[in-house]
Amino acid sequence: MSIIEDKLNTLGLELGPAKSSVANYLGCKRAGHLLFVAGRVSELRGEVGTDVTEEAAKTARDTVLAILSIIKKEINDLDLISGVVKIQGFIRSSPDFNNHPNVLDGASDLLVELLGDNGRHARTATGVNQLPFGATLQLDIIMQLK
Amino acid sequence: MSIIEDKLNTLGLELGPAKSSVANYLGCKRAGHLLFVAGRVSELRGEVGTDVTEEAAKTARDTVLAILSIIKKEINDLDLISGVVKIQGFIRSSPDFNNHPNVLDGASDLLVELLGDNGRHARTATGVNQLPFGATLQLDIIMQLK
Amino acid sequence: MSIIEDKLNTLGLELGPAKSSVANYLGCKRAGHLLFVAGRVSELRGEVGTDVTEEAAKTARDTVLAILSIIKKEINDLDLISGVVKIQGFIRSSPDFNNHPNVLDGASDLLVELLGDNGRHARTATGVNQLPFGATLQLDIIMQLK
What we know:
- Three copies of one chain form a homotrimer.
- The first copy, chain A, is an alpha+beta fold.
- Helix content of chain A is 30%, strand content 26%.
- In chain A, strands 1, 2, 3, 4, 5 and 6 form a six-stranded mixed beta sheet that branches.
C-alpha cells in the first residue's frame, strides 16, 4: 500500500471507486513529468451562497478523494506523485457570494495532510454561474510525477 | 501534406485561414514540449440553453479546426503534434443548462478522429455567463509536441 | 537590481510588497522549467460593464505588478524568468459586457514592455459572474524559468 493510502487510512478516509469519464475524454493525461487531471465535479449539487454554503468545503475534500482514485487507476501507484502543482477550482455560486477561497481550503488542506510540503500548491478559485450536472464545484488539478 | 491534414481531407474538412489574435497576444506559445494555445472563441454567438443549444457541439468541432489553423501557422507542420494534453472549455450558458460535457464532445471527438489514441486528452467543461464578443464557447488547448 | 526591475523604474512603476496567500496555498509553484503562479485578484472591486469598466485595464496592469512581487519573493531574481507562457484572465463582468480582451491588454502590454519578445504569451479571457472578495479580475499566469 502506498504512503498516501496509509495516511488516508490513518485519517479514516478511503479512495472509493474510480468513476469513469462522462464522455470521450481521459481521467488524466501525462505529459513529461506533469499529470493533467480532467476536471472532476463534486457529488454535491447546488449553488454556494444559496443552497449549499456549509457543505461546500467538505465536498471539495471529497472531490480530492475521487481525483486520487482516478489517478491511482491510471498510474497504479499514488506514490509516483512527487507534488501537487496547481489547482483550478470552479465554484458554482450566487453573485453575492465571494468567499471562494474558503471552499477550496477543503481540497488544499487534505492534499497538504496527505503529501506534506510536496502537497502545497498554487491555486485559483473562481466563481461561475453553472457547472456540469448542476455540481457545486469542479476541481482541475496538475500533479508532478517522479 | 501532414497526416492530420490528410485525415481532414478524408473527412471532408479543411483548416481554413488562421485568424490573427484580437489583441496583444500570441496564437500559441511553446514551452519545452508543451504548446499552450490561446483561448479561441467560436464563430457562433449566443447562449447555450436559450439561443443556440443544438448548434453548440458543431461549433466546438469548428473551433478545433480554427485552432489547428493557428498551430499550423506557428509550427508549420501539424505532424509535430504528438498528443493532445488538455482542453479547458468555457461554455456560455444559461443558469439552468448543465450538459456542458455534451457540447465539448464536438471538440474531443474530432481530435480523436484526427490523432487516434494520441488525440485522447484530459478535459474540463465549465459554464460561464459571458465570453468575448458574445461567443458561444471558448476552447483552450495544451498540446504536446515531438 | 534585475533588468526587469530596471525597466519598471524607467516606466515609473514599482513592485510594492508581496501579499501573502489568503489561505492554505503557495504564491507560486515550480515544476521543471514552468512556474505556475496562483490566481491573483485585483485590488479593484466591482463588476466590469456596470461599476468599473474604465478602470479595469489599469487594474490588470497593477495586478501584474503584484504577481511579479510574489514571484520575486519566491525565486529572488526576476531575471530568472525566461518567458511568459500563458495568462488566464477571469473578468467579473455583467452579462452584456463582451470586450474582455480589452481588459486583459492592460496585463499583456505591461509584460511585453518589461520582457520584450519573451513577454509575449498565449492568453485566454473569460467572463464570470463573481470572483473572490468581489474583485474585478483575476490573473493566473504560467511563466517559463531559465
